[in-house]
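Handoff note, outgoing to incoming analyst
You'll be picking up this chain. Sequence as last confirmed:
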Amino acid sequence: MALMIQTFEPRGYSRDEIQVMCDDPKGELSRKAYKEQYEEYIVDMTRILKDQPQRAFLFDKNEGYPQLCRILDIPLKDCPSEKVFPHANVVKKEGRIFRALEHAAHGLIFIVIYILWRGLKGKHT
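Most recent structure output, in case you need it:
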C-alpha cells in the first residue's frame, strides 16, 4: 500500500481511491490510473530520447530484428532472417512440458527413496 500511495497520491488520487485500487487491481479505477502512469512514462522516455539519444533507444517490436540489430550495432548479415519477432509463446508451452517432467522426476525420486528404504528395512529385520 505504501508504494501505491507514493506512486498515485502525487498524481491526485485520494487514499480512499488508492485503497480501492489495492482491493481491486483489475478494476476500472486501477486500469485508468495505470494507463495514466504508463502514458506519463512514455512521454518521459520520449523526452529523454529526444534530449539525450545516447542514453537509450525506443524500440517497437513490430519493427522486427533488422531495427534491433541496427540499434545494437549488429551487422544486418548477422541478424536473424525473420522480419518480425515470432508470435508463438514457446516459453509458456515449454514451461508446461518442463513442469510435467519436473513432477515426473520428483515422483521417480520418491519411488527410488521408497525402494531403498524398503531394502534397508528388510536387511535390519
